[in-house]
Amino acid sequence: MVVVKPKQFDTYFFGIVLLITFIGIFAFVSASLGVLAQSTAKFYGLLFGQIVLGFIGGLAGLWLAIKVPYHFWRNHALAIFIITLGLTAAVFVPHLGFAHGGARRWISIAHVSFQPAEILKIGFVIYFAAWLAWTKNQHEEFKYKLLPFAILLGVVAGVLLVQPDTKSLILITASASAMLFVSGVSWKKIIGIVVVGLMGVIVLALFRPYLMNRIKTYINPSSDAQGSSYQLQQGLIAIGSGGIMGRGLGQSVQKFNYLPEPQGDSIYAVIGEEFGFIGSALLVVLYVFLAIRGYKIAMQSRDAFGQYLVIGIVTTLVAQSFLNMASLVGLFPLTGVPLVFISQGGTSLFIALFASGIVLNVSRYEKKV
Question: pTM for this one?
Answer without folding.
Answer: 0.92
